[in-house]
Amino acid sequence: MSLINMAKREINCKIVYYGIGLCGKTTNLHYIHQAVNPHDVGEMVSIDTETERTLYFDLLPLELGKVHGFNIRFQLYTVPGQILYQQTRISVLKGADCVIFVADSQASKLQENIECWNELQEQLRRMNKDASSFPLVMQWNKRDLQDTLPVSVLEKYLNPYRVPSYEAVAVTGKGVIESLRVGINSTLRKLERI
């Protein structure tokens, strides 16, 4: 849930990048950090293991100006994708206003993606969020690799609610800003209904 500070006239929103290990969540944040105006973005914070995989989360603060006299700030988080960090994923997901699900498009990763998607839906249910109306964006990442599944297959298994989806190559930035823009806009639309 967005944090609204009336005294400071500030709204803080949380977008969580969710997906399996090494699917490109952190790469998305690195690209955004480089692409956004330095005045609008804060320092990127990462807590990594020795293998450089995200251990707890990555955080990228992003300021988007004012809406109705309120400063709008987005906190972009990633979750660790490795199976043993399920509790950490749950903790990072709490309070999310939007989730960008990053799927590894490789055929060999389909089952892992499905399990991760099912876990996300279960966590949203536990947080009393309806996945069919919660702001979600699907990102089909690693489209530049050889053994990628057709988008229609990814849509069939991972996008039952037909939320916006984008093909992406996070290392080059393809689809990264588009996914974020839709996530931000759907979060702002949800805020307008409050």
From TrEMBL:
Top-rank lineage group of the source organism: Bacteria
UniProt-listed CDD domains: Ras_like_GTPase (cd00882)
Pfam families in the record: Arf
Annotated signal peptide: none
Gene Ontology MF term list: GTP binding; GTPase activity
UniProt xrefs under InterPro entries: Gliding_Motility_GTPase, P-loop_NTPase, Small_GTPase_ARF/SAR
Ribonucleoprotein recorded as keyword: no
Matching Gene3D superfamilies: P-loop containing nucleotide triphosphate hydrolases (3.40.50.300)
Alphabetical UniProt keywords: GTP-binding, Nucleotide-binding
Nucleotide-binding as UniProt keyword: yes
PANTHER family: ATP/GTP-BINDING PROTEIN-RELATED, GLIDING MOTILITY PROTEIN MGLA
Protein's name according to its UniProt entry: Cell polarity determinant GTPase MglA
Protein species of origin: Dictyobacter alpinus
